[in-house]
Amino acid sequence: MYIGIDVGTSTVKAAAFDRAGRELAVAARPVALALHGGSVEQDMEEVYGAVLAVLDEVIARVPEPVELAGLTGQGDGVWLVDADGRPVRPAASWMDGRAHELLDRWLADGTFESVFRRTGSAMFPGCPGPLLAWFDRHEPASLDAAATALYCKDMVFRRLTGAPATTDVSDASMPFLDPRTRRYDDRVVELLGLTHRRGLLPPVGDPVATAEAREGLPPGTRLANGPYDLPSCALGAGVTGPGDGLLIVGTCLACLVATTDLDLKGEPAGLYISTDRPGHWLRAMPAMVGTAALDWVLTTTGVRHEEVDALLAETPPGAHGVRVLPYFAPSGERAPFVEPRMRAELTGVSLESTKADLIRATCEGIGYAARHCLAAAGLTGSLAVCGGGTRSPAWMRLLADVLGRPLRVVEGEVGARGAVLAAAERFGVALDAAAWTEPTAIVEPDAARAAYYADAYEDHLARLAQARHTARA
User: What contacts 106, CB < 8 A, 6 or more positions away?
Assistant: First the structure.
């Protein structure tokens, strides 16, 4: 069997697959996020313990030889470890917002744009550049104690294998990697005031690093480190042809489009994720918007997830005039624009508004954000959709209508599936990628509703422009 490990932001999963790509077993463990004063942190020992737990469960449930394993996980953030791979402090999550004032200065003085023109990375508060610079100014002892500033999956890979600290081109893409040379751009390091911390950046494995497991998996199991969760999901959904896209409806709303064109002009936003194929990138718009926005509205209104489909049917497109700009993240928004101070807005609400109106308006707002991101990423081909949001058929129909295009719904552990496919490629194991990435459903848009939402999307963009102006005031 083949095992994919997906170390997510709130859930750690392991999935076992047979040679045809069928899921044999899935195990999951929640992991906590600690939010305080704009910072968002995670306990690395808790995360690693969850990895060991899900591996133990999957291997016990499917007692077959493990041919190989692939590892993926959340990107960005800063995971500081010592020379033995042990944490020197809690990990700073990609959701962390403490560096927003620093990013504000870089936006104002041109540093932000200069970095984008060199690497195609539009920095946001929770990416390694601003976070490392913040630690250097406010918590230098943590950097002094660290040997390497890893990414999430890299910490797990080091612990599972004992291999030297390393990352891959996908994780390194934000914000230091030159997408043309596939090496760190030392001028970017200098622009961010981090030349004296250059030694903290992990070596880049190109192609992805491999090693044999010494714990968690059967001893000697071949394990590949990467890519991280966004490009891994693209592989798991079969998104490899230029122009084809993927929408991940998860904690964040990640929009990815495969491309062979590197365009560092235009409004700085999103990033270019390097892949294991030189000359091939994923144009990524990983918005902070996502299911976290809907979860907040559900919690606030006392609605359970299993009620969402019925409530979406209770109110028409437009939600009786209720509108939601769904930018709830404490670190603002990062794609398809960067506004660290961006906040959510609810308008058109009255005493006559219902829970159903609020739920539909939120889902519509997330859909408009997705359409904005996909347009900015250059979508021209087919669109696959994966993530927790796919469990709601009504929401998938709404998304197809808002986006005005068919959706190739890919269910299951798509990130873990992509991690296995990447590992198989790395180890020279032939798997039928088309069979592994077969969609579970195709959702077609309704023509009348799609026409309505095309007009409503223009209204969304107008309201968004005003909100961005307010955020900068």
Answer: 112, 115, 123, 130, 192
